[in-house]
Amino acid sequence: MKYGILAAGEGSRMVKEGILVPKPLVVLNGEAMIDRLIRIFSENDAEQIAIITNNLTPLTQQHIRDLQQHDARIKLIVKTTPSSMHSFYELHSLLGSGRFCLTTVDTVFREDEFKQYIRTFKDMDVDGLMAVTDYVDDESPLFIATDEQMCIKGFYDEPHEDTRFISGGIYCLTDKSFATLKRCVGEGQSRMRNFQRQMVCDGLKLQAYRFSKIFDVDHAADIKKAEGFLR
Q1: Contacts of 188 (CB under 8 A, 6+ apart)
Q2: DSSP 3-state of 21
Q3: Sequence spans of domains, the chain
Q4: Which terminal residue of the chain has fewer beta carbons within 10 Å of its beta carbon, N or C?
Q5: Is the Cβ–Cβ distance between 166 and 133 less than 8 Å?
Q6: 2-230 belongs to which CATH class?
């Protein structure tokens, strides 16, 4: 199983709130967020971990390069991109063929739930298994419409018919998604949510997988909240 981490955002909101360390290096209960993800992925049979960070955070770049000295599975791309979808596009060649799991660097979730999520994806005949939650703590949530079998019918910016969940920012996908990704970039689209909408339009078989709680560390106040949740 291959994994990807989107860590190319600027974290501007946290900087404005006095957090000067780059977001991937923000520490939760003694562990940097990016280190936590790498550890969790390693515990879930990671054969490769591809990471993208931007040109503006040399501390993050050096941290990852130091990790590479001890872990050959870690691959790094340094490039400033206009959106998370474009970051995914830059990573997709490293993710290769087959199945992979992609997440943003600031996504916080329970490790036991993630382990079962990965096991479920490996056993399912789907093009994508998308992590969802009914816990809403996001400034701009992406609402997901599902049927009773948790098949995804649509992605919406506002609550809509059958939108019981929001996106958790964790995506298990197959390489079948790359054709949609390339077309979205070629057409000048941006944002992961638009890529997800296009996968539905393209007829990819997407399933939702419920986590009890997932949230992003976007603000300084979220750090304490995340530490309490993980404890």
Answers
A1: none
A2: coil
A3: 2-230
A4: C
A5: yes
A6: alpha beta
